[in-house]
Amino acid sequence: MAVKNLNKIRKDIERIDEVILTALAERMDLMPDLAAIKKQRKIPIFQEKQEQQTVKRLRRMAKEQELDPDFVEEIFVSIFNESKRLQNEAMRREE
């Protein structure tokens, strides 16, 4: 019985991992379009105030979901960094 439950939990984790990766890929697919708009409007890629507001919102949401806000922030800072890298890359390709 315990092995069956372990296997079910592992399957559930794999399914959730796939959802997370799919959402992450969807988010990153938006970066070239975001970069184009920022370039057209002469908006810098890194917008500190926007990022701080987003982190604040995510930390609040983490608490609501009973997750460690520091853990969630760490994950999203990595996501933001990759997003900025992709935007820079997209802008360089357009030059």
Description of the molecule:
85% of the residues lie in helices and 0% in strands. The protein has a single domain (2-94), classed as Up-down Bundle (Chorismate Mutase Domain, subunit A), CATH 1.20.59. The longest helix has 28 residues, at 2-29. Helix 2 packs across helix 4 (69-94) and helix 3 (48-64) packs antiparallel against helix 4 (69-94). It has helices spanning 2-29, 31-40, 48-64, 69-94. The chain has 95 residues and is mainly alpha-helical. The protein is built from 4 helices and no strands.
Short account of what is shown:
This protein is mainly alpha-helical and 95 residues long.
Helix and strand topology:
Blueprint: H1 2-29, H2 31-40, H3 48-64, H4 69-94
Helix pairs in contact: 2-4, 3-4
End-to-end span in angstroms?
A: 60 Å
So, the CATH homologous superfamily?
Chorismate mutase
Helix and strand composition category: mainly alpha
Helical stretch tally: 4
Mean pLDDT: 95
Largest sheet: none
Salient structural properties:
mainly alpha; Chorismate Mutase Domain, subunit A; 95 residues; 85% helix; elongated
